[in-house]
Amino acid sequence: MEQVQLLGMWLSPYSYRVIWALKLEGIAYEYIEEDLSNKSPLLLQCNPVHKKIPVLIHSGKPICESSVILEYIEEIWPQNSLLPCDPYERAIARFWIKFADDKSPSISKMSRTSSEEQETAVKDILEMLETIEEHGLIGGKKFFGGDKISMVDMAFGAVAYWLGVIEDAAGLKISEAHEFPRLQSWVQNFKEVLIIKENLPDRDKMFPLLKRRRDVAGV
Amino acid sequence: MEQVQLLGMWLSPYSYRVIWALKLEGIAYEYIEEDLSNKSPLLLQCNPVHKKIPVLIHSGKPICESSVILEYIEEIWPQNSLLPCDPYERAIARFWIKFADDKSPSISKMSRTSSEEQETAVKDILEMLETIEEHGLIGGKKFFGGDKISMVDMAFGAVAYWLGVIEDAAGLKISEAHEFPRLQSWVQNFKEVLIIKENLPDRDKMFPLLKRRRDVAGV
Predict the structure, then answer these.
(1) How far is B203 from chain A (nearest CA, A)?
(2) Which of A89, A95, A146, B53 is 20 to 30 A off residue B66, Cα-Cα?
(3) Domains of chain A, earliest start first
(4) What is the pTM of this model?
(5) Could you tell me if A88 lies within 8 Å of chain B, comparing CB atoms?
């Protein structure tokens, strides 16, 4: 029998990308919480290059990097397609997943950095939101790929949920709803999807931790 | 009849990734050289988000980001497979392509930056080479994926060729051959592949340009 394990960390949007995809496909898995301040021998053995979560272990074989894991899930358990069937539409989806991978780190930077670095992070986040609004969510679609949630929406999970909590912890609102109407509407649609709604880290648990990180950063 | 166009720039390893893949698949295409100091309306229209080359235009539809273009080429023209068939091996390949995407920018940074930034770039490049040697090229394989060139090798094109030219232009040798025997052997294998050998930018043309860049950077 095949065994599916996920090494994750409760606060990480990258862990949640994988959790959402597994839930959408209806795959039973064992979740193993990692203490990132004291990484387990299993994590170090599975991801010797980056030593980072998430790692999916499928029948003993480790797969690292959340966007690579999602492609793997799509290939192994294709029952609920996470990518469009048409190759051109798949390329567009992969373009936006890469964009999310490249730009999302600004969001976690915001909760960790000094004033000056925070200013850069805020500028980068704002540029990211503008790009999503102007180019990513055009044509009145409910989700990035149309009427159904896909890998692209999951890739932007940090924008949909984590950003708001980090803004509140920082006492700083990066954007107003009226500036990004398409983005705001997508955030609502995303958070209403059952597998998302039922699988998000607890805001009350996140909040003090994010505030503490900022206090440590001295801002 | 389907039309294939490539917007590229002769110095860019990212352009060459796409050129190699198209050549390997035997796809006829029109190459359009971009002047990056005066970007064409076609480039700005095709890649409004990043405004960067390469862009593949297939029957009028633009695809951006070289690693996304390679996945698209693999799906549209699968005659010479650029990725392994096995889903787990594909995941490993995608892990290394992402690694190449994330780490290669240090190589071009080395030819542009001030002394201090150059020091960081050199450190990052050395780390990248160590990781490739220690984790990427294990098991005595000729290429990353085995006996045949694949998308992963193409993704590391900047390591195989551009790095050496940039080192010479900078008068700085980052690594010695004996430190990275597997990597050196891979570089040789890579440069002996016909489609690679016949499609590389001219070293004599690159050299003065790279030296000028460094003079402008004041190092």
Answers:
(1) 31
(2) A146
(3) 4-76 (3.40.30.10), 87-217 (1.20.1050.10)
(4) 0.95
(5) yes
